[in-house]
Amino acid sequence: MGHCINALIGTQPALAGIIEALGTPPPTRLPFDLLIVPLDHNRLDLLAGRYTLPCYDGFIYFGPNLAEGICRMGKAGQLLYVETAYFGGQGGQGAAVLDAGRLIWKDAVSSARKDTAKRPQSPINYGLAMLGVKRAGKIDEFDAIGLNRFRSLEALELEENDDAD
Fold it and tell me: Are 93 and 83 in contact (CB under 8 A)?
């Protein structure tokens, strides 16, 4: 089974400017007073100024242009950018935390990269912990917040061919 999403996670105040500017579907509520907003290719392009390349090492979409766009529109608190692209156990994930209009942390892992095999925590779990998500016993941050429910943009009520306003 695959898992392929691009999204921003944060509080309502942190996401408000991005939701308004991009015309996203209504955000989905998550535990820990957080929301998730899906990002299709059109919205990624709008955030990045229509140019998503180049990307940071290990990321599919996240690069300096996208980081700058998120920082410009989301200045009211911490945001977590997440991207996943898994199918049949192969693929990768990346995450970045942006706070008050600046990139403060980023990391990505891939099943194709040998240097990422022995990390103590996945980038998404680490980023969620930075936003205050707590593990619950053997349940990691990813499952504690319910991201396992969203395997695609469609699961977040965004059709890939939706046009951004």
Answer: yes
Dihedrals φ, ψ of 118, to 5°? -110, 35
Q: Which residue has the tokens 């899906």?
A: 38
AA identity, residue 73: M
Given a cut of 60, is residue 11 above it in pLDDT?
A: yes
Of residues 62 and 2, more confidence is placed in 62
DSSP codes joined into one string, 28-55:
EEETTTEEEEE--HHHHHHHTTT---S-
pLDDT in tens, 116-158: 555 668 999 999 999 999 998 899 999 999 888 887 766 566 5
Task: Return the C-alpha torsion angle 128, 89, 139, 118, nearest 10.
Answer: -70
The torsion of the CA quartet 97, 10, 41, 107, rounded to 10 degrees, works out to 20
Cβ atoms within 10 Å of 90's Cβ, excluding its own: 11
Contact (CB, 8 A) for 151 and 32: no
Q: Which two tokens stand for residue 43?
A: 């919205």
Q: What is residue 145's predicted lDDT score, i.e. its pLDDT?
A: 93
Across 39-58, average pLDDT: 85
